[in-house]
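Dear Dr. K.,

Following up on our conversation at the group meeting, I've run the structure prediction for CRDL1 protein from Struthidea cinerea. I'm pasting the input sequence below exactly as I used it, so you can double-check it against your construct before we proceed with anything downstream. Let me know if the numbering doesn't match what you have in your notebook.
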Amino acid sequence: EDVPSQTFDNKDYFCGKETFPVYESVFTEEGETIRKIAIETEKPPQIEIHVWTIRKGILRHFYVEKLSKREFEELPYFKLITRTTLSQWKIFSEGEAQISQMCESRVCRTELEDLVKVLYLEKSEKGHC
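The predicted structure tokens came back this morning:
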């Protein structure tokens, strides 16, 4: 499916805040879905990857790994999905910690989807920054 492309290099688009690329990888293996959300930071220059293992809609395993940009470039399957600010990433990380506890024993498909939506920045109207 085609997602309308955004131009990510215009700081005005995000109210002058510095933004960071966010990548996603989703694949299914032996009945489990492994979903990875990654952010690329400059300081330190690294990739932080949040890995969710989901079986039958239940979050079975969750962990974070950090890689160098060079190591990340060698990984297959990742695609750029958006750019986000550090404050949005913090909200995402905090929500993820809550969901990982909440979803150990029940289906949390919608909660995980809603959490990823936090990373997408809304285009603000001029003067609303």
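Two things stood out to me. The two ends are 31 Å apart (CA to CA). Residues 1-13 have pLDDT under 50 and may be disordered.

Best regards,
J.T.
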